Every structure is written in C-alpha cells, then in structure tokens.
Amino acid sequence: MARTVANVIVGALKELGVQHVFGVVGDALNPLTDAIRTTDGLEWVGCRHEEVAAFAAGAQAQLSGTLGVCMGTVGPGSVHLLNGLYDAAKSHAPVLAICGQVPLAEIGSDYFQEVDNDILFRDVAVYRATVTSPDQMPRLLESAVRAAVTRGGVAVLTVPGDLGDQELTDDRPTRFALDRAVTRPDDPALVRAATVLNEASRVTLLVGQGAREARGEVLEAAELLAAPMVLTLKAKEGFEDDNPYQVGQTGLIGNPAAAHALDSGDALLMLGTDFPYREWYPQDVKVVQVDAREDHLGRRTPVDVGLAGDVGATLRALLPLLEGGRERAHLDDARERFVKWSEGQQRLADPAHEQRLTGRARAALDNRDHQIRPEALAAAVDAYADDDAVFTSDTGMATVWLSRFVTMRGARRLLGSYNLGSMANAMPQALGAQLWAPDRQIVAFCGDGGLSMLLGDLMTIKTYRLPVKLVVFDNRRLGMVKLEQEQTGLPEFGTELDNPDFAAVASALGLTGIRVTDPAELHDAVRRAFDTPGPVLLDVLTNPEEVAVPGKPTVAQGWGFAMAKVKEMLPGHEG
Known about the structure:
Blueprint: H1 5-15, E1 20-23, H2 30-37, E2 43-46, H3 50-64, E3 68-72, H4 76-79, H5 82-90, E4 95-101, H6 117-120, E5 125-130, H7 139-151, E6 154-160, H8 187-199, E7 203-207, H9 215-225, E8 229-231, H10 236-239, H11 256-263, E9 267-271, E10 286-291, E11 305-308, H12 311-318, H13 329-349, H14 359-366, H15 374-384, E12 390-393, H16 397-405, E13 413-416, H17 426-436, E14 442-447, H18 448-453, H19 458-463, E15 469-474, H20 479-487, H21 502-508, E16 512-516, H22 522-531, E17 536-541, H23 555-569
Parallel strand pairs: 1-2, 1-3, 3-4, 4-6, 5-6, 7-8, 7-9, 9-10, 10-11, 12-13, 12-14, 14-15, 15-17, 16-17
C-alpha cells in the first residue's frame, strides 16, 4: 500500500486502537474515507450531521479514556463539528478532529467554502495544524494525537483535499509516546493540608469525577474524617452505589441534605472537582483542594491549601497524616437528612402517589389529561434498566430527573453535556456509546427540545442497527428555561413546543416507537421498550408543570414563581 498522507493517518488510527470514525463524507475527505474503506477493523460511521459525529466521538473518548475521532469536510462540514468539539473540550475528552480544506494552492484566496480552520478552532483545540506538505507527516499527526491524549482535549488536524493522495518521502513508522505522569504534592504541602483537616471538627467532602479512579482512598478519607460526601453529578458514576457517606448532589439539581452538609461544616475537602457554581460553596470555612490541574486550584472558591496532583496518589500520601476517631454527629445528621429526602422523592415517583391526592390537588390532576409525572418515568427506567447500562442525558429537566431517580449502581456509566450544557447531546452520545459497547444497554434521557434539534440522526441509528433506547420526556416545553423564567418572576414565554408524535416519527424512520399518555400504562411500556430488540423510542407525555425544587430554595425564588404564575393567568397572556 502506498504511503500516502491519507493511508498513514488511517493506519496510525488503527494502530492506536481506534475502531470508529464519525463524520459526513465530502470531497476534501475522499482520500481519507477511501483509506478507511479499505482498512479492516476501522469503521466509517456516516452521520446525518457533523455535530452528531463530534458528540459521538467525544462520548467514546469519555467512556474509553482513549482517542475518539471525527471528521468534517471543507468549510461548513468542519464548522458543524464545533459544538460537539466544545463539549469534548470542556469534558477534557481526547478527541482528534480531521478537517478537510480547499486545495493547497487556493488557501488564502477566499476560495469556495474556504474557512480558516486554525482560527475557527483556536479557542476549542489544545492543538491545531494544517498539513501543507506530505513531508510534515507523520510528525504533525503524532503531535496532534499526543496533545489530545496527554492534555485531555481536542486536537484539530486540517488536510487540504489535494494532499491526501500525495506520498511521503520518509518511510519511518508513526510513534506515539502517550504515557501520562502520576504526580502528587510535596510533603510540606501535605502536612499543611493534614493540619487544616485535623483541626476541623466538621469536615465535608465535595467529590468530582476526577476522583473516580481513587474510590477506595476517598472512602477511607471519609471514614477517617467522619465526613459526609457531596457528589457532583459526574461523580454519581463511581461513588453513588454502596457508599455510606454520600449525600447526593448540590446546586440547582441537588438536595437539602447536601446543601446542609456543606453549609454546616467548618472545613471542606475538594477532590477532583471543578464544580462551577460559586454561590453553592460554603462561606467562612477552611478549604483544601486536590486537583490534577493546577489552574483549577482556588478558581471557584478561595482555598487555604491547594494540592496539585492525582487524587489517588495524593490521598495515599495524605491518609497516614489524618487523625481518626472523630465524633460522627456531622456525618450522621447529613445522612439522616439525605435518607429522609430520598424517601420523599420516592413517594413522588410512586404510581399510587396521585391516587392519594385530594381536594384542589386532585382537581388539578384531573384537569391535566393524564399527563405522567417525570419522576415516575425516571424511576421506572431505573428499575428496569440493566446494572451495566450506559446512560446519557440531555441538558435540562431530563438531567434533573436522572440525577434524582437513577442510581449509578453496578457498572453503570453516565454521560451528558455537564460542562458545556449543550442541548441535543443525549441521542448522539448514545449513538457513540452503543458502537463502543455493542453488547451493553444504552439509555438516552432525551428532552423533547433536544431530540428535535438533531432528529435526523435517528436515521443513523436505524442504518447501523444500534439498539439504543431513547426515552423522551415529552412535556412540550423547554422545561428548564420555563423554570428559570418563573423563578425570576417572568411569565413563561417562548418555551412551548409544537411537537409531533415522536413515536410515530420513529416508526416512520424504521425504529420501534412507543407512545405513553396514561400513567397506568407507564411501567408496562418501559418494560416493553427494554425487552424489544433493536432501537426503541419511548415517547412519554410528561407533566410540564412539575417543578424540581433546588437544595436551598430562596424566598426570592418562591416569590418570583408566584408572581410568574399570576402573570401567566392574566388576560392576554399567551404561552
């Protein structure tokens, strides 16, 4: 086989263990896609939109911890990758985007479809380069892959359309040095951290995804410090199951027990988290933060001791310095509050809950035409999904219900656009996840607004016969935006969605579509969706008036919500 630029790139991807390349074909990519066509063990996954390709590649990178790959052809094809690549960048997922470009001689001439990719991706990429000579290969490819993997981010390699078929003059093989260092702070810093924690009487842990590989050490720290453990959403995977210290999430999707655990402590130990919401951090407490990225230390809340290093390696050095035998009142109080709150949430998800309502509440229920509680839907999915299922969730209320009612037990995995907060991510990420793990159950919690944005790639799921289960929370609303408007006293505006029957759409595209409008049919429908072979879209009409109360509701929020409801009932208000 000739050592062309395209063949060298594709051969190197196979050598790295890449199994799928996601994208939309186009003329500038033809040498590359043809090289994929003739390479065993590497599959081209043709999507209907490049944004889906980037989300799918990012999902595989996050699940595997290895390189994900997507491609976009010249100009608009590369532009379409951008949102999915931003999500990968903010999730620190190693993704290589290979982008087409106009012929080499036309670069800089404002040629048809020409876009300067080096400028376009400047903000999103840890590495970007345009191949202008075959003699630059495989060096530029090696640099791109090394940057993506070792720095945990997006690398963009641009290949002009007339360069892919050109042969290299150098026949050396590609070589990748991808081993990552495991570091910990020096001993004096560890002593300072231990002093802060040992002198505190009520320590609370805030644990993020960056601590996932150090579960044992984190649990040991919680035991020694008698500390309740507040989890970020991304830390549900790995820390929620079989954990006698965890008290759930904080923030807008969180619960009062977690908020109280943070506010009632006198010291906070942050482990592998860059939780962004400053208003939810406790005030006037001592803070110790451990993070592999030095620039994360102290950027969300002031820290007394910042420890730059791998969470596992750092804790293994810190644990012998911590004093045990502590009073457990702080931990026990937080756990009792969490258990009580969880029991109340489960009552909301109980199908019999609505039968217990009386008076005005019952009248309101009867007037809403059997709309289903989203809590009940999420709880039913949790009950019937496999213990090694991979869940994805759209940004918005779908994520709230997953956070509160789906437990990451067993070997379950979790993905979402939890750093970028993009709409429309759940279905594309499920597509990538299913190809990564063809024998595992993949469940997407889709908002109706998110799903409809990239609805066309249901055809990709059909084409590749991917048995994903798409659960649509069909409340005919942009639910989180509605809640945000009402909490500030604004009437709902612009959030209503004129949805089709999504189950009928799915059936027309060759998927199994199931539509649920009656609460009495919910559990049977969820069970049937999981029992049905192949891809299934479960369209459940949920109540748009369901409100997720945050962990620390304020008087201002309550007053704003009341004022919004008054405005919505005024004559002349629409929406």
